[in-house]
Amino acid sequence: xxxxxxxxxxxxxxxxxxxxxxxxxxxxxxxxxxxxxxxxxxxxxxxxxxxxxxxxxxxxxxxxxxxxxxxxxxxxxxxxxxxxxxxxxxxxxxxxxxxxxxxxxxxxxxxxxxxxxxxxxxxxxxxxxxxxxxxxxxxxxxxxxxxxxxxxxxxxxxxxxxxxxxxxxxxxxxxxxxxxxxxxxxxxxxxxxxxxxxxxxxxxxxxxxxxxxxxxxxxxxxxxxxxxxxxxxxxxxxxxxxxxxxxxxxxxxxxxxxxxxxxxxxxxxxxxxxxxxxxxxxxxxxxxxxxxxxxxxxxxxxxxxxxxxxxxxxxxxxxxxxxxxxxxxxxxxxxxxxxxxxxxxxxxxxxxxxxxxxxxxxxxxxxxxxxxxxxxxxxxxxxxxxxxxxxxxxxxxxxxxxxxxxxxxxxxxxxxxxxxxxxxxxxxxxxxxxxxxxxxxxxxxxxxxxxxxxxxxxxxxxxxxxxxxxxxxxxxxxxxxxxxxxxxxxxxxxxxxxxxxxxxxxxxxxxxxxxxxxxxxxxxxxxxxxxxxxxxxxxxxxxxxxxxxxxxxxxxxxxxxxxxxxxxxxxxxxxxxxxxxxxxxxxxxxxxxxxxxxxxxxxxxxxxxxxxxxxxxxxxxxxxxxxxxxxxxxxxxxxxxxxxxxxxxxxxxxxxxxxxxxxxxxxxxxxxxxxxxxxxxxxxxxxxxxxxxxxxxxxxxxxxxxxxxxxxxxxxxxxxxxxxxxxxxxxxxxxxxxxxxxxxxxxxxxxxxxxxxxxxxxxxxxxxxxxxxxxxxxxxxxxxxxxxxxxxxxxxxxxxxxxxxxxxxxxxxxxxxxx
Amino acid sequence: xxxxxxxxxxxxxxxxxxxxxxxxxxxxxxxxxxxxxxxxxxxxxxxxxxxxxxxxxxxxxxxxxxxxxxxxxxxxxxxxxxxxxxxxxxxxxxxxxxxxxxxxxxxxxxxxxxxxxxxxxxxxxxxxxxxxxxxxxxxxxxxxxxxxxxxxxxxxxxxxxxxxxx
Lengths: 819, 166
Known about the structure:
The complex is a heterodimer.
Chain A: E1 4-8, E2 28-32, E3 34-36, E4 41-43, E5 46-49, E6 59-66, E7 71-77, E8 86-92, E9 99-100, E10 116-121, E11 124-129, E12 141-144, E13 150-151, E14 164-168, E15 171-175, E16 188-193, E17 196-207, E18 217-221, E19 224-228, E20 233-237, E21 245-250, E22 261-264, E23 267-272, E24 275-279, E25 285-286, E26 311-315, E27 320-325, E28 328-333, E29 341-346, E30 351-358, E31 372-380, E32 386-393, E33 400-408, E34 418-424, E35 430-435, E36 444-452, E37 455-456, E38 473-474, E39 491-496, E40 501-506, E41 517-523, E42 536-539, E43 543-547, E44 555-564, E45 575-581, H1 585-595, E46 600-605, E47 609-611, H2 614-618, E48 622-623, E49 629-630, E50 649-652, E51 674-684, E52 692-697, E53 704-707, E54 713-716, E55 731-739, E56 745-749, E57 752-757, E58 769-771, E59 781-792, H3 796-812
Helix pairs in contact in A: 1-3
Chain B: E1 5-11, E2 19-25, E3 36-39, E4 50-62, E5 66-75, E6 78-87, E7 96-103, E8 106-110, E9 114-118, E10 120-122, E11 128-134, E12 143-145, E13 148-156
């Protein structure tokens, strides 16, 4: 049988009851100080001392939250005190800064630590002493949380001496006290007047079960109050005096100690004579089986404790019900309520009570600002922005701010007031603020108001800015427009793809919202007028294309203008482009290349994609800067989406490069005429005196065509750098040829032959070339517009023709070649 | 934002009225404590079956130093292997996860090759058991045991398969 693995999921909890032959493999025989999760467990955190000091007290015997005030009540005991052993302290919700209520209870020291049961009802804290012997029991204490004074309980013939108290509905419930004349009635349950927890009607009481058998705990369970005795449980049903009644709930199980129970939601968990159980208002359910409480004690700590001092609590964060017996705790993990699991906690010190304090998310409302705002005037720009003049009257607080509200006429929030942004006043009395990203050419309403930490000024509280002071808003102000920018920097590109003849017009960019921008274009009729508007084929904010198939071969003026979709603004003035030639220069370029003896391998022009033999160039494998075979020649560089300026691919000078062109990667690059030619249109933007090779022989061997330290492009024959013009920042067309039969290479600056070199000695072989890649880690930094690759060695005449036609194509795209 | 709440325990042994915030540190009012977990007994080959155990894997997630985390292996309640692991992550507040790996292979001497190794053999009726405990040597942070997995091979199936046979 092959090897296998057996998972032992942690977090399964204790199972000390099942025999080892049937126990679940995820169960544990012992588990201490872990929080159980699904299949895993987390080491519990420690119980750290808050550092709060409680005078000379020796023990803490009661903890109770005061949720309404985000405080906590702590009752301490001083063993050595005479007559004033107990004290009540009010602490912060984080357990710090205890404040002595300065009214010690009468309780003689030198006795075992008293067990305290507390509850708070209607702003009063009730403290009962859980002592079976009523002659030693302390009278029930009432502390008024509002006045800080101790109060008495009225309505009865004396001060009640309850053994325990709890709140239920709008009542205070006290048990274990009869009357002043017959106080020792442990089966008695008394109920206060509704909403008056310190006032009891002497006749409003119940006798629970057998006389003399004490009620030990009263806990909410389901829709009733479970009244637990040692071996049985009753229930208080009803919701007011007329309907209250006591009935049996569980005749077999009760609770062994006053504080050994806790309610979580509607379920009450308690420790019976048979161990832990739970009830939701019906008969209780056994939870003790996995603990095998009758078996060997898991630890001496588990068997050496007086259960009367034990208590239970619920840990909300860990979802654990904890039954605490001194230093030993039985922990019922409820992270999966349908499958509660047991574990132990073994504490470093003995504890005697628990409580959860709650902090309140108290927000301090800021006072409204005392300043007033005035929206003075505005100026609009052509990029979808407005600049407003603002003035402030009054003295601003450092936290005072101005909220900017706008109601535009278009867009997602059309005709809705929207708070655009908030800016701090910062001690200014007047200033200008520019708001951008607006809908170009559209009207809008504006308003501002002062605020402090989100609280508006008293005159500006309305949600409708039109109700604010008039000086603070501009509504239906015809001047409150952004200006629809008239196109500038226009270029017109005639493109003939063999099927469609289109004119692409590119205009100046702007930054505002422009999806509502539309265009209209016309062509001159040649006799002084204009033909009807052209059909717009596609458009975005800054460019559009139109159908000019009716004008092929002609040279005409073209004019166009912007307008908005909704017609609220514009159109702008006509912009005329004179003498547009409806002949595609790219066709001439292709003709020029084809006219040479070479065999075109491919032409790439940025913004136009792969032209001619697109299939080849699309599979033109390059190498990226890690030497890996990249799926396309551009490796890490990408052609950016159009923003401004001519189309191009930008290289960052560090990680991006054009891939190698190798015959190994591109078998069909094998030379048709003993050589290869590469021509490209490029602009170097390198600022430093760093060599940036443009073309070089594969593997970095010279010769190479590069920009030298002075920005001069040249072919490196191993001689000193040239002294030509600094080409950096200029668009140039450069060429490079290599003859495999002779090993001769030529570099071309435009159409000028820079000279020949025979390379490193051996023939270049297959004209393997390495494009735009530096040696020694240097990479080209700049822009690439076009590449032409042929599988033959072109002549200087060929290079001259290509230079002319490629310059013409580049000019259409807004690139002026300078060499 | 939810309500911020704090659970407190009151020290109650006459040594001082210390109000203790639950989960606040990794000591109980200055006193050390440790986590301990001992799995129940496992018989992968069924009751009476025989198996060999090879490797124990203990994935742990933690965000601080813990020296050491102690793993013990028992056969029929007899402690056979004790391994201490150091979890070191004091400089990194992010939680790390690692898998502690404990070889259960045993070395035997032979007269031909010197030594050879074999899995921990659990003869008929032997029960496999694992315990994990922290040994407090200073403050620790978040430590989570994500489970345990034991690699084994059944040599002979038991006649009666126990429910704790995986």
